Amino acid sequence: MDSNPSTAESIYVSDAVTTTAKILVVGHFAVGKTTLIGSLSEIRPLRTEEKMTQASALVDDLQGVPDKVTTTVALDFGRLTLSDELVLYLFGTPGQQRFMQLWEDMARGALGALLLVDPSRLAETFPVIDLVERYGLEYAIAVNTFDTTHAYEEAEIREALDLLPDTPVVYCDARDRASSAQALISLVRHLLARAA
Amino acid sequence: MTAGEEEPVAGDFVRAYVITGGRRLPSSDELSLHTLVTVGPDKELPLGASPEVRAIWDLLSGGYLAVAEVAAHLELPVGVARLLLTDLFEQGLLLRRAAPPRAQSVDRGIIERVLHGLESLYG
Ligand SMILES: Nc1nc2c(ncn2[C@@H]2O[C@H](COP(=O)(O)OP(=O)(O)OP(=O)(O)O)[C@@H](O)[C@H]2O)c(=O)[nH]1
Ligand SMILES: [Mg+2]
Question: Fewest CB atoms within 10 A around its CB: which of A42, A171, B6, B50?
Fold first, then answer.
């Protein structure tokens, strides 16, 4: 933004940081993943891409390139410094079933997943729940209220999504930092209980 | 933010192939997306480094960044950035920090620290 050296330095993680943790922000298309990450991140949320499917197969078989196309998926992520030694990364992960390779990569070493839900499109959340469960990720449901303010009762959502009784369900506004942080805290409390 | 996040990228693949010399992309076991990396003290950029490696070097000369951040800042696909970083790491030129455990199992101590951090910031 400007040439102030402290601004230039701020893209880096402090030398004192010894540990990084990763939490996934998952959910179906346009549910608010990028918005929530942007609300919480201390850096401008970053975006990168991952090649999906047969990355190595394609490279092994370059002659086949004209026939082969693959998919690129945008990943966005943000960063929160939680203490002098600890940084948390939040990775937005699309909920489509076919991005298995990406999920494997994302799930490895993740503490758990905040699963965003749009209460007016509950059915779109089923495949996302299947994915987090397949990868053994603990999760909490964050209902992104989209201005509908609690028109959907928690019990209704629990039943529709067939949640376990101890799976947290919290309401949040992904555009609001404090509200997004509370959703994340509910998830991490749950992770701690499950890690006992 | 556009809806169309998927598109054919054969052209990008050729580019990735050239950058990596056609080698297989390393698995995320080596350097995961949130592993921090930086240039080792008193290390020098290898002679004949590609423009991409040079760009990584310049970026990481400033401090620690996560693997995913390197990819994003340099607009490289994550797999390609990871491969180039793995090369530099294996040559002893990079430092790595906070490598997460390989196992999928999660350390309770880290969860506690994350919770404590979030609560003290937002509690
Ligand atoms: N009114 C309202 N709009 C929201 C809220 N959260 C997100 N949006 C909007 O919904 C749209 C989709 O949000 P994104 O954050 O891009 O959703 P996403 O899950 O990252 O979407 P994809 O990456 O495309 O799957 C954007 O236009 C947001 O501004 C909310 O709480 N209330
Ligand atoms: Mg998004």
Answer: A42
